[in-house]
Amino acid sequence: MREYVGKCLCGRIEVRLFSELIPGQFQPRSDAQTCRFCSEHDGVWISDPRGTLRLRAVDETSVRTFASEQVRFHFCSACNTLMYASFEDAARTVAVVRVALYESIRGAALPTLITNFETEGLATGRQRRLEKWTPVQRG
Fold first, then answer.
1. Can you tell me the distance from the alpha carbon of 25 to that of 121, in angstroms, rounded to the nearest whole number?
2. Using an 8 Å Cβ cutoff, are 15 and 58 in contact?
3. Which pLDDT tens digit goes with each residue over 36-52?
């Protein structure tokens, strides 16, 4: 398992991504063409459903929700850097992280896949997240 460490601009928030993928295998995704929030916050995301995202319990984030209110967007409460987006299901929490936080991945990743979720229903969005996003561990 490889460990990738992403940090906010001020360094207070740390997000560790554990994955078997090498940097050139990550597929960034963005719906910034149709989502104003992603456009304004450099919402280009990566995940690995077979990996693990480790979040420190001591990290303080401010949380915002939009549209369906199913996804929670986490910002560093000190420098306001958008860090990750999480989705909680009864059984587990999954998340996507901004590729911009990971220098070694950002420069080598595949070209960004343009997505559009405007017409996606709640059940479809839930299923997509559970299948494609990274499982979260807190500790």
1. 29
2. no
3. 766 676 779 999 999 99
Lowest mean pLDDT, pick from 27-41, 44-58, 62-76, 82-96: 27-41
Burial of 52 (0-12, 13-18, 19+ CB in 10 A): middle
The rounded distance, in Å, linking the Cα atoms of 56 and 65 is: 21
Pair 106, 38: CB distance under 8 Å: no
Looking at residue 5, the DSSP 8-state letter turns out to be E
How many Å is the maximal CA-CA distance in the chain?
A: 37
Contact in structure between 75 and 61 (CB atoms under 8 Å): yes
Rg of the Cα atoms in the chain:
14
Q: What pTM was computed for the model? A: 0.88
Residue 105, phi then psi, degrees to nearest 5: -85, -45
